[in-house]
Amino acid sequence: MQITDMSGLMEKLGISVDSIASADSKDSSYGYRPLTEEERAHYQAMVDQINETFVQRVAAGRSMSMDEVRQLANGMTYTGLDAVDNGLADEIGTLEDAQDAAAAMAGLDSYSVMYLRPNTQDIDALLSLLGMEDKSSAAELAAALKELYGESEIR
């Protein structure tokens, strides 16, 4: 968890913030003032609790001791090879390998994959259509707009 204290910079720039809140610490994570010792202790306790839950779940899920996991849970990232070597992962594979493994675990002989894309309704969707190497015809563009925004929105 990081909470940036910008109060010194804001003071130099002549910026002041008046917080109106229902409790004294409601604005503690906004960065407009330093944390009090009580707030720092509260946030540290939260982080410690979350980390302990993480260590417990990894230890149980990977059949490792809590001490083994604590030594690995040092905040640093691991490559896939290192994760396999230290017992945090079983193997390295592709998305397709993971899909095959999930299907096998579910007892499926065959399966199909559907990739869902977000329903965007902004100019980025139109610009990405226009930026494609294969230039769309006006009819294809109109069809794409109708699919994106609905038939009643496009005339």
Explain how this protein is built.
With 155 residues, the chain is mainly alpha-helical. Helix content is 50%, strand content 0%. It contains seven helices and no strands. It has helices at residues 7-13, 37-62, 66-72, 80-85, 95-105, 123-130, 138-149. Helix 2 crosses helix 3 (66-72) and helix 6 packs antiparallel against helix 7 (138-149). The mean pLDDT is 85.
Topology summary:
Elements: H1 7-13, H2 37-62, H3 66-72, H4 80-85, H5 95-105, H6 123-130, H7 138-149
Quick gist of this model?
The chain is mainly alpha-helical and 155 residues long.
Number of DSSP strands? Answer: 0
Main pleated-sheet profile: none
The ordered H/E elements are HHHHHHH
Characterize the quaternary organization of these chains. Answer: single chain
Residues in β-strands, percent: under 5%
Number of helices: 7
Radius of gyration: 26 Å
Structural class: mainly alpha
Q: Helical percent range?
A: 40-55%
Distance between the termini: 50 Å
| Principal-axis shape | flat
What's the overall average pLDDT, rounded? 85
Poorly predicted runs = none
